């Protein structure tokens, strides 16, 4: 499986118990939404390998998960640090005016005057709204991802147009 065909959703934090369960840190809006997918892809040493999700539960500090074929603590402990991804084609289509964060990262950000402000390096969740972290050659801007500032998102052109001045 290629990186472009997968969406990283979290990572394995370590072993949980003695029967092969692992602790998972989910980087999703709802952590337990990962349970909707029967096949997970885990990456170790640059290679993705499929794992079948068999059971899991939400805990206060993340998820605990059981995979088919992972039956003892040693195997589970060896999975620590592995990235977890879901095949992109298994994700539901985003609604109109909604985007997966992974699709926004790397897009060029320009203002209404067509001045390049940089690229989306990451997004932050602030509680009130999401924020684009836009990195240019020499600076970084935090732009709220709300309709007051986002004029257009063109995924095909890999470009976000914003109502944002150079001196903000």
From TrEMBL:
Cited HAMAP family: Ribosome_mat_RimM
Subunit structure: Binds ribosomal protein uS19.
Ribosome maturation factor RimM PRC barrel domain span: 101-164
Entry similarity comment: Belongs to the RimM family.
Domain of life: Bacteria
InterPro entries the UniProt entry points to: PRC_barrel-like_sf, PRC_RimM, RimM, RimM_N, RimM_N_sf, Transl_B-barrel_sf
Entry comment, domain topic: The PRC barrel domain binds ribosomal protein uS19.
Pfam families in alphabetical order: PRC_RimM, RimM
The protein's name: Ribosome maturation factor RimM
Record keywords: Chaperone, Cytoplasm, Ribosome biogenesis, rRNA processing
The keyword Oxidoreductase appears for this protein: no
Main location: cytoplasm
UniProt domain RimM N-terminal: residue ranges: 9-90
